[in-house]
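Give me structure tokens for this 90-residue protein.
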Amino acid sequence: MSKISMPSTDTLSQAAKLSIKISKPICFYFYIDSCKNSASIVNADGEKIIYKNKEEHTSPIKNTYKVGNEYLVVTENTIYIISCSTRVGQ
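Here you go.
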């Protein structure tokens, strides 16, 4: 069993501050997939989304913040924490 890399303390702290400020929940749904290169940020209908497959993707990305080795990705309803090694498509 491989060891799961956890988001940094700084990332978790910044995510909590952002969550309180903009009243959106923090979600780790795509975190492991982003660490394993199984998720990416892609353009869909002119807007960027986090994409895993046809059934698993986010609503359009509103803002992205880099904290350490992670991104805080803000969508319409949620703050996602993903690895900064996540592929970004055109």
